[in-house]
């Protein structure tokens, strides 16, 4: 999670790899109300049912979970924008990806010189810290520091916790409720209420990660669902699995 000026644009920088001797691994990608970029630097992957080879891949804002299948020996490095931030904050990426509604892939040999060199350097490094540092430095050198979401949107995102009432938040921000909703949907790609639903599910997911054996009734209460049935419905729609299924996977892994 970068700090300093880059944190206004990027919420997280990550690296993932699968051992060549491992089986293929399927992972859910839970929506966070943001878009992202990742470099597929070795072997093929399947993202939302489509196979991709080496290259740079843009993933748009998702309204529900999708799944990624990583084959043995796969290596990925990427980053997630902050909600409301897009490729327009990075000139080279903005020139490369012009359709922000669909996943897009640019193969390695078609990348601009700077991004091709970055990808080739990421391929050379096998340790995750070096990959993350390399990508962090590239982002710092290429970000448009002035291209940030409006202050009102940043304030709204900071206060838009699942338990907070939108009307009460609006009282702290100098825009009407309708203006806030319009600005939020335009920049983030969903309504504030839908974003709160996503965040409530993600909060439950994080609680399960920390305590895989938590009672699901207690989990529903702790995370602000009206009851366990409500939580299960929201998980099915937004996480594409039940809380019990996610919990079971964590218990078995542990």
Helix content: 40-55%
**Overall SS class:** alpha+beta
In whole angstroms, the N-to-C terminal distance is 25 Å
* Spans of at least 5 consecutive residues with low confidence: none
Order of helices and strands: EEEEEEEEHEHHHHHHHHH
As a percent range, the share of strand residues is 15-25%
Radius of gyration: 19 Å
Q: Provide the spatial order of strands within the biggest beta sheet.
A: 1-8-3-6-9
Overall outline: globular
Main beta sheet strand tally, sense and closure: 5 strands, antiparallel
The average pLDDT is 93
Describe the protein's architecture and organization:
The chain has ten helices and nine strands. The protein is α+β, with helices and mostly antiparallel strands and 254 residues long. Strands 1-8-3-6-9 form a five-stranded antiparallel beta sheet, covered by helices on one side. Helix 7 (192-210) runs parallel beside helix 10 (243-253). It is globular and about 50 Å long.
